[in-house]
C-alpha cells in the first residue's frame, strides 16, 4: 500500500515510528507537510499538489495535525477524503475534537461521564455559573487551549471572577468546570484505535500541580483500565467518529469523567509508558480498512 503521513516534521517521534512501522509492513510511505499542500478544487477532479507535483496513488493517510494549524490541516484531510483516500481520522472528527465545548456537547448523549461544565457568553453572571457546577473551586479553560496551557484553577469566587474578567477582556472563550478533587492531579490517557483501547497510561502532575500534562512536568506510568473506563474511552472515540483517539479521563467518585478527546495523540508518551507498539496497531488498522 501507499501511505501518506501528514506531518510537519519527519523527525518527530510519532512520525518516525509510523514511518518505521509502514516500512516493517512492506508499505510505501511518504511524509507530507500539510502546510505545503495546495488544494485544487475542480469539478470531478479534486487534487492535492505538493512541491509542484500532484499526489497520486495513495491508499491511506494518517493525519498528524497540530492544534495551531487545524483549519488548513482539516482542509487537506477533507481533500484526500474527496479523492477517495482512506484516512485514519476524518476531517469532521478532527475539527470537532479541537474545540473542547463542541466535543463535550457531542459526548453528552452517549452515556459517557463528564465533569459538569458551563459555557457562557455572559461572564457577569459568575455567581450562578459557579453554583451550577457545584461551587468553588472551579476549573476555567480556554476552549482551544492545549498541553494544559489556559487551564486555571480558581479557589474562590473572587479569583474565578477575576480570571473570567481577564479572559473576557481578551475576547477569549472559556468553559467553567467543576473541579474533580479526588483525581488528585492525575488523569488517564486511553489510546483508542479502530474502536479498541490499544494502550493506556496514568499521568500524575508534579507536586502541587493539578494539571497532569507531561508538558507541565507530569510523569506517566502504564495502567490497567477498569471495564467502565475502557467503555468510556471507546464510546468517546465513537461519538466523535475518530479511528484514532487519545481519550483523557479523570477518575472520580462517580466513575470516569471524560475531559477531552485528542485526534492526533502523540505516540511517545504512550509507547514509552506501556512498552507497546502502538504504531503497529495503527498500520494494522489501515490494512484492515483501506481499499475496503
Ligand atoms: P489540555 O487540553 O490543555 O490538556 P485539559 O482539559 O486536558 O486541557 O486539562 C489539563 C489537565 O488539568 C488535565 O489533564 C487534568 O490533569 C487537569 N484537569 C482538567 N480539568 C480538570 C477538572 N475539571 N478537575 C480536575 N482536574 C482537571
From TrEMBL:
<keyword id="KW-0464">Manganese</keyword>
<keyword id="KW-0687">Ribonucleoprotein</keyword>
<keyword id="KW-0067">ATP-binding</keyword>
<dbReference type="InterPro" id="IPR004666">
    <property type="entry name" value="Rp_bS6_RimK/Lys_biosynth_LsyX"/>
</dbReference>
<keyword id="KW-0436">Ligase</keyword>
<dbReference type="GO" id="GO:0005840">
    <property type="term" value="C:ribosome"/>
</dbReference>
<dbReference type="InterPro" id="IPR013815">
    <property type="entry name" value="ATP_grasp_subdomain_1"/>
</dbReference>
<keyword id="KW-0460">Magnesium</keyword>
<dbReference type="GO" id="GO:0006412">
    <property type="term" value="P:translation"/>
</dbReference>
<dbReference type="InterPro" id="IPR013651">
    <property type="entry name" value="ATP-grasp_RimK-type"/>
</dbReference>
<comment type="similarity">
    <text>In the C-terminal section; belongs to the RimK family.</text>
</comment>
<dbReference type="InterPro" id="IPR011761">
    <property type="entry name" value="ATP-grasp"/>
</dbReference>
<dbReference type="Pfam" id="PF08443">
    <property type="entry name" value="RimK"/>
</dbReference>
<dbReference type="GO" id="GO:0009432">
    <property type="term" value="P:SOS response"/>
</dbReference>
<dbReference type="GO" id="GO:0005524">
    <property type="term" value="F:ATP binding"/>
</dbReference>
<keyword id="KW-0648">Protein biosynthesis</keyword>
<keyword id="KW-0689">Ribosomal protein</keyword>
<dbReference type="GO" id="GO:0046872">
    <property type="term" value="F:metal ion binding"/>
</dbReference>
<keyword id="KW-0479">Metal-binding</keyword>
<keyword id="KW-0547">Nucleotide-binding</keyword>
<dbReference type="GO" id="GO:0005737">
    <property type="term" value="C:cytoplasm"/>
</dbReference>
<dbReference type="Pfam" id="PF18030">
    <property type="entry name" value="Rimk_N"/>
</dbReference>
<protein>
    <recommendedName>
        <fullName>Probable alpha-L-glutamate ligase</fullName>
    </recommendedName>
</protein>
<dbReference type="GO" id="GO:0018169">
    <property type="term" value="F:ribosomal S6-glutamic acid ligase activity"/>
</dbReference>
<dbReference type="InterPro" id="IPR041107">
    <property type="entry name" value="Rimk_N"/>
</dbReference>
<feature type="domain" description="ATP-grasp">
    <location>
        <begin position="104"/>
        <end position="287"/>
    </location>
</feature>
Amino acid at each position: 500500500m501507499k501511505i501518506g503521513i501528514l506531518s510537519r516534521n519527519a523527525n518527530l517521534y510519532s512520525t518516525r515510528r509510523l514511518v518505521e512501522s509502514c516500512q516493517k509492513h512492506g508499505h510505501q510511505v511518504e511524509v507530507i507537510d500539510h502546510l505545503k499542500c495546495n488544494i485544487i478544487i475542480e469539478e470531478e477532479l479534486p487534487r492535492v499538489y505538493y512541491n509542484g507535483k500532484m499526489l497520486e496513488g495513495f491508499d491511506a493517510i494518517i493525519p498528524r495535525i497540530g492544534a495551531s494549524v487545524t483549519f488548513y490541516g482539516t482542509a487537506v484531510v477533507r481533500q484526500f477524503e474527496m479523492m477517495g483516500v482512506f484516512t485514519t481520522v476524518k476531517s469532521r472528527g478532527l475539527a470537532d475534537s479541537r474545540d473542547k465545548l463542541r466535543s463535550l456537547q457531542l459526548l453528552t448523549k452517549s452515556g459517557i461521564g463528564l465533569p459538569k461544565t458551563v459555557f457562557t457568553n455572559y461572564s457577569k453572571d459568575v455567581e450562578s455559573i459557579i453554583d451550577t457546577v457545584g461551587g468553588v473551586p472551579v476549573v476555567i479553560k480556554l476552549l482551544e487551549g492545549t498541553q494544559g496551557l489556559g487551564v486555571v484553577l480558581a479557589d474562590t469566587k473572587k479569583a474565578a471572577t477575576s480570571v473570567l474578567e481577564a479572559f473576557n477582556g481578551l475576547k477569549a472563550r472559556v468553559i467553567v468546570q467543576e473541579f474533580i478533587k479526588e483525581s488528585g492531579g492525575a488523569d488517564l490517557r486511553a489510546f483508542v484505535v479502530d474502536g479498541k483501547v490499544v494502550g493506556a497510561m496514568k499521568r500524575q502532575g508534579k507536586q502541587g500541580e493539578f494539571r497532569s500534562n507531561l508538558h507541565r512536568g507530569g510523569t506517566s506510568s502504564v495502567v490497567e483500565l477498569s471495564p467502565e473506563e475502557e467503555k468510556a474511552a471507546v464510546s468517546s472515540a465513537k461519538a466523535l467518529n475518530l479511528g484514532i483517539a487519545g481519550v483523557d479521563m479523570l477518575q472520580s467518585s462517580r466513575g470516569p469523567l471524560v475531559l477531552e478527546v485528542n485526534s492526533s495523540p502523540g505516540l511517545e508518551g504512550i509507547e514509552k509508558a506501556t512498552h507497546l507498539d502502538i504504531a503497529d496497531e495503527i498500520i494494522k488498522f489501515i490494512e484492515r480498512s483501506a481499499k475496503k
